[in-house]
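Researcher: Next sequence.
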Amino acid sequence: MGYSMNAETTLRPTRSDRADLWTVLVVGAIVATGALVHAVMRIVSVVSNTDVEVIAPFAADTRAAVPVGPNGTPLDVQVDTAVLTVSGLPVIVVVSLVFAAVAELLMTLGIVACAALVCRNLMRGQAFSRTNTRLVFATSITIIVGTTLVNLFSTMGANGALAKLSDKTFDGFVAGASLVPYFIAIALGAVALAFKAGERLQRDTEGLV
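Model: Next structure:
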């Protein structure tokens, strides 16, 4: 992304830059709308407590018989994730699944909001600023906290669903969490540090003018 600089070291985005930033804003609005619709549909489905689909991650050594052999012959396969369809879940499980959906929605909206504010500042010619640095840090924290809460409530919901299906005879415990969001958060933290360094460099450059 290129910027032109005037005598007062104000960074001014070019027409192409503005088009790119507007594209990011439009995509962000679409993502936020999709996340809101998905969350509402998920919450309605969970609250109805009828044929609720719950994703359950299993341990790596979990095996199950699946009819994938000749003429539908059951074969043992390794299962890492399964979609459970459950009705009549206990209230605490329903609440956990609702909280998971809400946490995921709030995380998405928070990320989109921070990105939109950064784009707005860039349109105003504010590239390396304290506000942008804080927004990038806020995005990183939002991803970490949001992912942790989604994993926590989803795990509670999955174990509750398994307990319901097995009449509390299932001995295992399902838990699964991708490390990818945390790596993204770390990368954004590094970007925030780069913004901070750029802000300091710009401030020092202006002091020499």
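Model: The longest strand covers residues 52-57. The CA atoms of residues 104 and 150 lie 6 Å apart.
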